[in-house]
Amino acid sequence: MTLARAPARRSRLLEGPGPVLVLVVAAAVAGARLGGFTDLSVYRYAGQAVLDGRPVLESGDPVTGLPFTYPPFAAVVMVPLALLPAWLAAALWTGASVGALAAVVVVARRALGRPAPGWLVALLTGGALALEPVWRNLTFGQVNLFLMLAVLVDMVRPERRWSGVLLGIAAGVKLTPLVFVVLLVLVGRRTTAGRAALAFAGTVAVGFVAMPGSAATYWADGLVDADRVGPPALAHNQSTYGALTRLLDGPPPTLLWLAVAGPISLAVLVVGAGWWRRGDRVLGTCLGALSMLLASPISWSHHWVWAVPVALALWERSRCAGAAWAALFVARPVVWPPNGQHREYGWSPPDHLVGNAYLLAALVLAVWAAANLNRRVDNLGRLPRHSARRPRTRRVDVARSPT
Q: Is the pTM of this model over 0.85?
């Protein structure tokens, strides 16, 4: 009897959260041992500034020399990090980041109508760590995995009572998720969009209450200064603004940037809304994310963590497309041409093609999505396969029928 139960027990362990917890603990241990995460140090500095009542935007982190570039509300969110020893903050942040990545896999697969057993979630999460945006997010100690999870949860289930709140909070930490409020309006979820807008307004108010001077500085001056977060010409900036900067050997005029990035981003957003309304909320949300990345003046490569749910959505339609998309972000061709120290200004035409690979891949995906938008799709938004299918018949499970 004991031997008969052993396989079943092992099966339950593999199906449950155990494999994911092992991965999270391993990530936390690695984070504690490695430490020295650049952006996490800046976050801790911002949280300490809130505790000390000091302005956070006027000076940089004394450890890294880098400024805090997020809205003041984000500094308030980072206060708990400042209360922890550096090694413990690194451990918890890294473990929680991997946990958020695993949660993204679960949410995306379930929204796509696919099972999410623990062993498979752990396998996919471990594989996702090989994607450059993901591992760079972890090595910097960045916040993007948490924001992606918050947005995805609200976007795939906007009919829930409190949907939109997480999205609004995410936008309060980093402004770019506000694009999803527009997406919600386009798909007819105006109540959820309004809830997200109210939550975002609340984060602005919290920032003014906690840090009135820094909040006034941020919303008056820092909001429109793209250079405050780094040189936009760097190859890692995979936005339309970054591509134009490299192509023109200098930052483009604002009107030119808006004339190029505006229509492209809006078109991608509209296509995303079309897929969302047709039942594929994962792909629709991912297209909204790509619109956000294309529109933002600065979209560092570690902002492209949305490559993970995009790969999951593509895999459901074409194994080759999903694998090719993931392989692109593993290979990270954006750093193959000469980069850094303004060497991007000397790029040849092939260098521009390779060095803007993330951006170009997003445009190719958007064109494919637009071309297939009006084709017949099933209730999950998947394109029908060309092979013939047997008609489905309803199966009655007598053992489970009501008596």
A: yes
